[in-house]
Amino acid sequence: MKIHHFSILCADIWRSLAFYEALGFVIVTRFTAGTTLGCWLEGLGMRLELMQVPTPSPPANPFGDEGYVGYYHLSLAVDDVGQTLEGLGSILGTVRILLLPREQIIGDRTYRVSFIADPDGLPIELLQDVTVH
């Protein structure tokens, strides 16, 4: 068994597509499911599915709701959190930052971590290993 794709429902597929392309994904397949537009994107070693919701509801706030249960965020390993944020800002114009870059120790590793939001507010973690050997 292996993971085939991770799916994200979005309010505006074109806006979400521009965001995820800025992260490094490229469209490999476009499709419809009933009246819903969808696409598969590949990049960063994975496949991502975007599907537009015809009548979107406001999404849950997994980043801000301490009682939230469910999928929390997509985490992307990056070489430099600061440069990644700057690059996204130059491509997208603005990037909604949920957590400013900070160091976090997990096990025996130290990471520089920041969270941003996709166009629908879903958290995306940018994770840079800064462990000193």
Give the secondary structure arrangement, pairings included.
Blueprint: E1 6-10, H1 13-23, E2 26-33, E3 36-43, E4 46-52, E5 74-77, H2 81-92, E6 97-106, E7 109-117, E8 123-129
Parallel strand pairs: 1-4, 5-8
Antiparallel strand pairs: 2-3, 3-4, 6-7, 7-8
* Gyration radius from CA atoms, angstroms: 16 Å
Structural class: alpha/beta
The run of helices and strands is EHEEEEHEEE
Major β-sheet profile:
4 strands, mixed
Determine the number of helices (DSSP H or I, runs of at least 4 residues): 2
Mean pLDDT: 94
Shape: globular
* Count of strand segments: 8
* Residue runs with pLDDT of under 50 for 5 or more positions: none
Order of strands, main sheet, comes to: 1-4-3-2
What keyword list fits this structure?
single chain, 133 residues, alpha/beta, four-stranded mixed beta sheet, 44% strand
Give a short summary of the structure.
The chain has two helices and eight strands. With 133 residues, it is α/β, with parallel strands linked by helices.
Task: Give a written overview of the molecule.
The chain is an alpha/beta fold. Helix content is 17%, strand content 44%. The chain has helices at residues 13-23, 81-92; strands spanning 6-10, 26-33, 36-43, 46-52, 74-77, 97-106, 109-117, 123-129. The strands form 2 sheets. Strands 1-4-3-2 form a 4-stranded mixed β-sheet, covered by helices on one side. It has a 4-stranded mixed β-sheet with strand order 5-8-7-6, covered by helices on one side. The longest helix is centred in the middle third of the chain and has 12 residues, at 81-92. The termini are far apart. 17% of the residues are buried. The model has no long low-confidence stretch (mean pLDDT 94).
